[in-house]
Design goal:
homodimer, about 325 residues, alpha/beta, 6-stranded mixed β-sheet, 15 strands, about 35% helix, about 20% strand, globular
Chain lengths: ~325, ~325
């Protein structure tokens, strides 16, 4: 799906378990796209350049096309380490900290992540900072950003700067509990959970009412299966509702000073409806942003910020 | 290690992953003991009788020796189902509900578990009811019992009856998080956690201060490793402290009406010191009972209650 319009930059989201590349024109429009499972965990030593160049060749990208990358490719275990910016930090400053891959003739830059060195609340992100840059235009002033996933991030934004952030293991806990724990007997065979399912909504409400402490609720899913024949579908909805509700309750308390601000939800088509339901049950005003579009827009913003795109084309 | 004194009964704790048998004299003293990994999960279909008789033969038990059993051998997937007693229920009534294994010439009885049919708090136990019978003499009146493990149980006792109970997945969460999650990178290589370790105590205090909501704390273990070089030992202590502290905070709220009562801790040598520290940090008065002794004493009490031991010998 290459185009006759020349690309201005290649934008790459290179995470732990995925690789995505877009060829963008000088206005940021998508000319071509590829996705693969060649995330950090599956890249052989010194294998980053070959993987990237292979995708660029398939897309018939020019030899001089610059490439901007975000995500785990910039971690210590990645291609070239892009040292963390330190929160609180303006997003422009984060983008400006992108490092050059010196071993390549092509201009390739990797956007750094952000570290929070607060000894009471240490935290790190890599990739989400670029999504934040991608939604900066949507959400000015002060607001909260919720980025659901394996490791959900909540970010307090203040006038284009990351004021603070915190990570929840929600997606990973759902995966472990539903596939490895005693609860696997309860949820095996369940399909996609709907945000309208009564057990999902009830479990969200319970988790919110408990202030995020769902310790006493988890085994009830198993017991309700044994004693009352709770179905796999309802069990999965309860587990999802408990974990997402607990995250929302916990994050709402963590960012209590920000709790009257709207929440910008940056997620996937699978997760956003569930998080939206939980956020609305908690009384938050919710704005939705698409996670894929956010990272692509953020990478384009980084390329412009770094002068990688001809200025005449970006006017 | 058989004895010249004749055994009066064989007591068996037959759980999901373990098998334990004791030969007891007419006063409940241990004459001989065997342990194996032949728990429910490893018993072939119709294999229960052969496993039990093999252990009895090795112990040179008489052919007429009665056997009392508790645990998962009485579940639907077990040897003979011993239907749950329904809480609230007196422990004597639970023991009286033991079912006879009709297929055996030997007198064999299996103690039932307890179900809590409350639709807002469904729960089940199998095995712990026998431990409760074993500590009944230690703790009369009203008290809370904490039984740590893979699935920790807290039980509110009132005058020899189980008034209510609730299960936490604490041990299973520790195992999954430390071996399967992102936190495995942080804790791999850690040894036994000490209840005196500062990170354990601090994490317990944090979990208590958060009312059991530790969602925002878990990823900090990983971040502190990346940013501040937190050691594997301190990471494991933090994870243990967060999970045990969260259970104690959650259970203290769940049984709020009982919170001025002492807590009887029925556990193993590995877990009891950690739970004792967390309980004391939460302001509970703690009594310690040994879990092995509790189940053995409870099985002996069941055998007496069921008339399986000659009355002249039990006077």
């Amino acid at each position: 799906m290459t185009s006759h319009i020349s690309p201005a930059v290649a934008a790459v989201d290179w995470g732990t378990s995925h690789f995505r590349i877009w060829l963008l024109d000088a206005a940021g429009a998508v000319l071509a796209e590829r996705r693969s499972a060649e995330g950090l965990l599956s890249v052989p030593p010194q294998g980053f350049a070959a993987i990237l160049e292979n995708h660029l060749a398939v897309l018939q990208a020019p030899a001089a096309l610059p490439v901007v990358i975000c995500g785990m490719a910039g971690s210590r275990q990645g291609w070239v380490e892009a040292p963390y910016a330190s929160a609180p930090v303006a997003l422009g400053e984060v983008l400006a900290g992108a490092v050059r891959v010196a071993s390549s003739a092509r201009e390739i830059r990797i956007v750094p992540g952000i570290a929070q060195h607060d000894p009471d609340a240490p935290d790190v992100m890599r990739g989400e900072e670029t999504q934040l840059a991608g939604i900066a235009a949507l959400a000015s002033g002060g607001h909260l950003v919720c980025m659901p996933g394996t490791h959900s991030k909540w970010v307090e934004m203040r006038d284009g700067a990351v004021a603070g952030f915190c990570t929840w293991l929600t997606g990973e806990l759902y995966s472990l509990l539903s596939s490895q724990s005693i609860l696997r007997h309860s949820v095996t065979g369940a399909g996609h959970v709907s945000p309208d399912a009564a057990p999902f909504r009830q479990a969200c409400a319970d988790a919110l009412a408990q202030g995020g402490d769902i310790g006493a609720q988890l085994f009830r899913i198993r017991a309700a299966g044994l004693l009352a024949g709770l179905s796999a579908q309802d069990s999965a909805a309860m587990l999802s509702g408990l974990l997402i509700g607990a995250e929302v309750a916990s994050a709402t308390r963590r960012f209590a000073a920000a709790d009257k601000k709207p929440v910008t939800l940056v997620g996937s088509a699978a997760l956003s409806p569930l998080y939206r339901a939980a956020l609305e049950l908690a009384g938050h005003e919710v704005r939705i942003a698409d996670g894929d579009a956010a990272v692509r827009t953020g990478l384009f913003a980084a390329a412009r910020h770094l002068g990688m795109i001809e200025s005449k084309a970006t006017a």
